[in-house]
Amino acid sequence: MADSHHNPRINGHQPPLGREDIAGLLTGHLTQRRQPEPPSPTAPPALAAPAAAVPSARTDPAAVPRLAELPGELPVDWDVIETLQGEVSKQLAARDPQRLMEEADRRALARSLVTTAVADWAAKYAQAHVPLTETQEQAIGTAVFNSMYRGGRLQSLLDEDSVEDVMVDGLRAHVEYLDRPRRTIERVADSHEELISWVNRMARLSGHGERGLTQSTPMVGFRMPDGSRVTASMLTSRPSVVIRKHRLRDTGLEELRMWGTVNPILQYFLRACVQARMNLLVVGDMGAGKTSLLRALGREIPADERLVTLESDRELYLDEPAASGQPGPITYAFEARQSNGEILGDKKAGEVTISDMFATALRYNATRVVVGEVRSTEIVPMLQAMSAGGSGSMCTMHVRRPHAIISRLVQLCTEAGMATEAAHHLIAAAVDVVVYLAYDWDDVKYGGRKHRYVSHVYEVHDVVGEGGRPSVTEIFAPAGPQEPRAVFKNMPSFIGELENKSRFPDLDGAPSFHRAWLTDNPLGAWGGPLQRKGPAA
């Protein structure tokens, strides 16, 4: 048996094992590495030496990408994790061949099998290598379990604090954070094929068996087991994957106020709008926090109502209990389904879009409809549901600039086949309030964080105005160049409904929203205490 003190090491660590070494450990027969010959002290210069073969990541230990590049250093190459995963998967299938176990019990069994397999592997590994520490064994076991049930090789990135986006371009990943600069990881996969296999395995784990990244379906989207949203494509120059992590699944308006997205006036105003059954549209640029705000507004819907959510990928989670423990409305969460790539007539086989789900959803007699994001022709049934009795419905929409909101709505309606004039009338009849979110970076003012905030709130009147377009009034808008956040500007025409239909029993016994809260806080209470006078004080 080789002396462990004479084994080569890389950067102070044991060199990663190849597939032959792994197979030997699993079968009890360790394949020994050939030790490099020490250079001869009298050897001539290597100028005339024959050209060496280009090292391969599979044959040259120094060329094998280390997991040390990822958070949570592992002492082995990912081949070890994949092989252990395959071994545990076989054992798990043998113990529960019909998959009759509850998922929680199956995962608990998998954890137990992983612990045993890693311990056995580590004992054989120690026969010819420096023994692993308990911490290293636990890290390997976690990686194996993650490979089976979580994000695999990318999970350590997703587990980092304040991660918002992981963008994979071929073998390289760029990580965007809430509160620190972008980070680049040079290698998160050994090949493009491995990355594609990861995408398809994640799709299966998420219950989206119909979604796969193949030549016939070169674009795919789904959510991961932890709720992160994945979009992947083979149409780019290299296979690419973008993962949007949902850090804030249980947030409400109170948390958004604490983080500076809204101030107390906006918090109470938007809460009153939800309780008074205003139709709300949350808009903004990509990454502005639209889904987080919509989720927070959904948490304000009274428990005695019935709610339907329609999403292309599950992100709102309004059908799950709130972190506060407060009961919510009866909620039916619908999720779209992608095609398997086949075409039947003029429709993709198996595809179910948000537009397709509207007819079924409305038969649930829901008091409100919430659409995660309106991107296309679903805008028409959404607006029709709002205008035909679905008071209190809400959705998000991508809009780059506040002044382009109506134009964007009209554009989507005309793309769905509506005439411009008809689109104007439908928008005026459907939408009551539009909330615009913005964001910026300011190292001095906001502590170096990505600061998301409401910059505008509009009232859309139910009549068309000049040029045949819906009339719009600014309720909140920026105070000026030095204050981009929303402050009160004009009293909404529906203020009476807010005063009569909203309830704030938790706010010092205040019975309802009161218009004096707007007029007594000219700066919107961004920088000072909230003044609450009048009958509601």
TrEMBL record:
Boundaries of every Bacterial type II secretion system protein E domain copy: 214-435
Region annotation Disordered: where it falls in the sequence: 1-60
Record's protein name: ATP/GTP-binding protein
Gene3D superfamilies per UniProt: 3.30.450.380, P-loop containing nucleotide triphosphate hydrolases
GO cellular component: plasma membrane
Family stated for the protein in its record: Belongs to the GSP E family.
A single GO molecular function term of this UniProt record: ATP hydrolysis activity
Biased amino acid composition, Low complexity: 45-57
InterPro entries named in the record: P-loop_NTPase, T2SS/T4SS_dom, T4SS_GSP_E_ATPase
Organism name: Streptomyces coelicolor (strain ATCC BAA-471 / A3(2) / M145)
Lineage, broadest ranks: Bacteria, Bacillati, Actinomycetota, Actinomycetes, Kitasatosporales
